[in-house]
Every structure is written in structure tokens, then in C-alpha cells.
Amino acid sequence: MAVATLLAGCGSQTQSTAGVEGLTPPTSRSAGTPSPYPTELVGQGLVLQDRSHGPQLCLGVIAASAPAQCGGPDIPNWDWAKVTGKKTSAGTTDGSYVVIGHFDPGINTFTLTRPPIPAAAYHGPPISPEPQPALPGTPCSPPPGGWQVVDPAKTTDDSFERTVSRAAAMAGYAGVWVDQSRSTDPDRNDPKQLILNVAFTHDLPAREQELRETWGGLLCVSKGLHTEEELKRIQGEVFEAARSVTLSADGGRDGVDLRLIYDDGTLQKRFDKQYGEGVVRVSSALRRYSG
Length: 291
Description:
The protein is built from four helices and 14 strands. It is an alpha+beta fold. Among the domains are: 13-121, no CATH class; 152-223, 2-Layer Sandwich (Histidine-containing Protein, Chain: A), CATH 3.30.1340. The strands form three sheets. Strands 2, 3, 4, 5, 6, 7 and 14 form a seven-stranded antiparallel sheet that branches. Strands 1-11-12-13 form a four-stranded mixed sheet. β2 and β3 (53-58) form a beta hairpin. It is elongated.
């Protein structure tokens, strides 16, 4: 059973420079151009070099292949001879590391300011990615008599798919998701046990009546603040505005989740002002390093 999801996009990436004693000197910046992020940042990810490029810090999607494939900021002063925990296969050398340095979106670099640490040997504070907002569960209160199937004949995989497709074509459609908290086997996706959640911006009673023509299972019709079309438009705009540092831009959960290599808060403030607070949710793969 597949659930319709909002458009998801992918972006490119960027990086920095700065020398440190004992590391290979970085490539030079344009004369007189300072790094926009002088504060040290920390991140954890796969560092990969292959026949087409030098060492890069992979912060986005890593292709499930052997050897691995990914892309990200170049690390101009990386030296494989000075690190452990690496492996080489078919012309590709990679390893998972915690790295500390300066990120420069203007020239697509992350320049080390301290020696990298193999991820397996790192024992400092967690450097996990910022969590994505969870789906909102079911906002509707249980109907009189509790959650019950109203028409078993319309509680099949086929009726589910037809209902989801039909909902997406209705006026004011804002999104769809499933709540499996009542399921005895969440991995099975039993249509008779899940709660189908559909959000619209207006006319909720009318939309629920229409959906009942094809869906006889548990149903919650709730109010959304933005239509799917609005979220797609916002998604495209924020992706374009942050193209050079974007890892992903996903529309859903009544907002747009924008994952960047790094944001010092500037873009979040800009988007809050432009679209309203909480409509665009910015998260960063890199964090400020506190020592």
C-alpha cells in the first residue's frame, strides 16, 4: 500500500577554507574574500574520493552501491595518509569521520581546522542530524462509539488507493497520511486498522462526505493551513533561494522541511518573515563546534 506524498526535491552543496598546522594546506580563496562562517563547525559523514573527484564530505543522500556514491563539499586539505578507518575499492576510497572546520558556501569547501576523527573512535557529544518533524498522528477525537470500520467492503487496498487519489484532486487538499497506532501489526498496513488522515483548508464536512463514497475504514478529516499547491510553490521558492547549500526540500506536514549543509539562522529568519513562522522548517547537517 502506497501513500501519496508531496513533492520532494534535491539540491546541490557547498564549502570553505582555513589552514591548520599538521594538515595539508588548503587551496587559496579569491583574494580578499573572507570565509562567511569563521566559527568552527562540526559534522559527521562519509568522506569519499573516487576517480572523478578528490575528498568530499557526504552530507546528503548516499547511493546504495558498491562502492558508495555521493556528493558534497570538497575537503581541500584532506590527507588519506594521516587517517585510519578508511577502505578502498574499485578506485574509491572512503570512511566515516567526525570533521571540524570552516564551511564556505561560496567555493563549495569544508576546510579542516582539526584532525578528523574516525566515527568509530569518536566519544564526544552526539552529532546526530536534527530530527525531522514527526507526522501529526490523528488530530480528530474518536467518533461516538469509538473508531470503527463503517463499511468493510470499502476497506481494501484498492479503495484506499482510490480514496487517496480522489482526495488529492479535491478543492483545498492539504495532505494525506496514515496513523497506524491502532494496528496490531504496523508492518502489515491492514486497511481495516489504520486511520486515514486527510487535511483540507476548508469545507471539511463536505470533503468527508465525498471521501466516504470510496472509503469505509477509519477516517479523520482535519484542517490544514496550506494547500498542497501552496506548499509546492513555497518548496520551489526556498529551494531556489538556498540552492547552493540545499541537501533536500520536502513539502508536507503543513509546511516545508528544508535541510541545508549549514544555516546560522539567517535563512530561517528570512523564511519566517516571508512565509510566517513555522511554515518553512530549516535544519542543518553541520553544527557549531563548542569544543
